[in-house]
Amino acid sequence: RSKAEGRNTYRFFEAKMGEETRERRLIEHELRQAMSRGELKLVYQPQVQIDSGEIIGFEALMRWHNRLRGDVPPSIFIPIAEESGLIIQLGDWALLEACREAASWEEPLTVAVNISGVQLHSQGFAQKIHDVLLKTGLPPHRLELEITETALIKDMNRALGTLRQVKSLGVRVAMDDFGTGYSSLSNIRAFPFDVIKIDRSFIKSVDKNAQAAAIVRAVLGLGRGLGLPVLAEGIETSDELKFLIDEFCTAGQGFHLGEPASIEHFDHIVHANSHVGEKKAAAS
Ligand code: C2E
Ligand code: MG
Ligand code: MG
Ligand code: MG
To answer: What is the complex's ipTM, to 2 decimals?
Structure first.
């Protein structure tokens, strides 16, 4: 391979990197104005108890529809928001919006909100949670914060302190995407989690794939041993669900059980009894 060729390859990569950096800056620029332009919204995905099929709560997921780019997926804009620090504003907005929404739901439906490591490690995080609960009137036990292991590792001691503060408010904490990233079994013991969410990469074809099945069984055993419920993410087929029923998995989430949608789509579920209540009130 000639020197010139090497140089050209280098230039190619340099140009490509420049392009990517520019693209990220453009997205960041648009994202900065997304909130004030009303381009952000939350959708909600049902979380279901496996044995009864009952909906126990919803995970709030952020959606961004940009005027120039159309729908931008979270896998693109969340990392950019994290690197630029914008995730603090976006996260504050999502937390307030989700809690305000969930405060109107039937007891005991919960709302799960994803929390990035940047948020968790930011100054006054626990106080912020406290303020949002006070402001919205959402009972603390109906809020669940979803945190990945990767969010903990930056400063384990600080993360532990913050999680303990949050837990003392009565809020629930979920370990999200379990089994990916820098998984360590000691994390599950050291941190005060209320539920383990198995990453969807292990649920995919779990009914057909012996390795995935072995890993899922192991995590279910871990949950049982530690007295922690386990929620399976990304259930897409009835066969995957059947496997999880047979293995006594606690809860599940996935396209097969319900796709993320605007909350209006779930009105009849989240306000079921209040309609009865209204009718009763009207009749009396
Ligand atoms: P996550 O927290 O693990 O959320 C679950 C993701 O799996 C969601 O992707 C959801 O739409 C998707 N999903 C649910 N069921 C299925 C299924 O059966 N099959 C497949 N293939 N996917 C399924 P989404 O909404 O694109 O979000 C991706 C990630 O972006 C989330 O992963 C979360 O880490 C992050 N994210 C989303 N909203 C927020 C937010 O408000 N704040 C923060 N910090 N992160 C968020
Ligand atoms: Mg999540
Ligand atoms: Mg997450
Ligand atoms: Mg997840």
So the answer is: 0.99
